[in-house]
Amino acid sequence: MTLDLKFIDGEMSDKTIQVELSTKAAKALKKRNKPLFVTMEVYFSCFVVKRVQFSETEPEWPSFEAGDNLNLSFRVIQSAPCNIHDLKGDNTPEYIEFPIKKRRKLLPHRLTIDFVNGEWQGSYIWNFRQSRAVA
């Protein structure tokens, strides 16, 4: 299942993101009785990391309803210390919001969500060629 959504986040409300749900992910979302919160992160540390975080609870930062039991958000963060071992699994070391002027240019174009062996998995991509053409 593929959804083309307007990203509702202030300055980025005119950006479209394509959300691709596997068959298993779509079925798992329909079975839920509360929303799944999905955060796409660009994480600046010792190097740049693209992460997709899944949570049962609403994040402290803005998110928007993207469909049945699915809420999305996007943020750019930077770790305070630089320790590569802190990035294992779902661990998020102490961080600060990364002050970036053109945040909307970093918004992913496609998010892929799957549900494998009872675990949520996700990844996202940018299409910089399209960004340059539109920008």
Q: Would you mind describing this structure in some detail?
A:
By secondary structure, the chain is mainly β. The chain has one domain (2-134). Helix content is 12%, strand content 44%. The protein has 2 helices and 9 strands. The strands form 2 sheets. Strands 3, 4, 5, 6 and 7 form a 5-stranded mixed sheet that branches.
**DSSP summary: helix tally:** 2
Indicate the radius of gyration in whole angstroms: 15 Å
Task: Name the shape in a single word.
Answer: globular
- What is the typical, i.e. mean, pLDDT? 76
The total number of structural domains is: 1
Elements, N to C (H/E): EEHEEEEEEEH
Low-confidence stretches: 131-135
Main structural class? mainly beta
Q: How much strand content do the residues show? A: 35-45%
Instruction: Please report the distance between the alpha carbons of the first and last residues.
Output: 28 Å
Keywords:
135 residues; mainly beta; 5-stranded mixed beta sheet; 4-stranded mixed beta sheet; 12% helix; disordered C terminus
Summarize the model shown:
Helices cover 12% and strands 44% of the residues.
Summarize the helices and strands and which ones pair or pack.
Blueprint: E1 2-6, E2 16-21, H1 23-31, E3 36-44, E4 48-55, E5 64-67, E6 70-79, E7 95-97, E8 110-116, E9 119-125, H2 128-134
Parallel strand pairs: 2-8, 3-6
Antiparallel strand pairs: 1-2, 3-4, 5-6, 6-7, 8-9
